[in-house]
Amino acid sequence: MGEDMHKGGCQCGAVRITTTGAPNWIATCHCADCRRATGAAMATYVGFNADAAKISGASYTEFESSAGTFRGFCKTCGARLTYRSPNWEKEIHFHVGALDDADAFAPDGNVYTKEKLDWVQLEAGLPAFESVPGAED
Description:
This protein has 1 helix and 10 strands. The protein has one helix at residues 32-38; strands at residues 5-9, 16-20, 25-29, 43-49, 53-56, 60-66, 69-74, 80-84, 91-95, 109-111. The strands form 2 sheets. A 7-stranded mixed sheet has the order 6-7-8-9-4-3-10. A 3-stranded antiparallel sheet has the order 1-2-5, with no helix packed on it. The relative contact order is 0.23.
């Protein structure tokens, strides 16, 4: 087949992720919603075509965090795994840290920097956007 395959999952192993093909993008989000959802200062996501991704395990569930936006996690260990939004209907976004080969997914840029914590330093040379180009705020 020759396509890139990436695997991952939650901390307890009850949920597994498999993707094929190259990612559409990789970015670090600095918005307050992502901070609250993850408990971290920022969240790095990788976007794949939804039809190229498979999530297995009965412990996977999603929470509608705002109208039409869903955040997926393992209901056994609580690990955050996915993000889906009407802004990207044909994509699913995975938390980079949930992938077994997380080091392969260095961000291409930073989004929602208008909400960035003051003490966070952005990576030199990476594009930074106050919101997300083309997305509805």
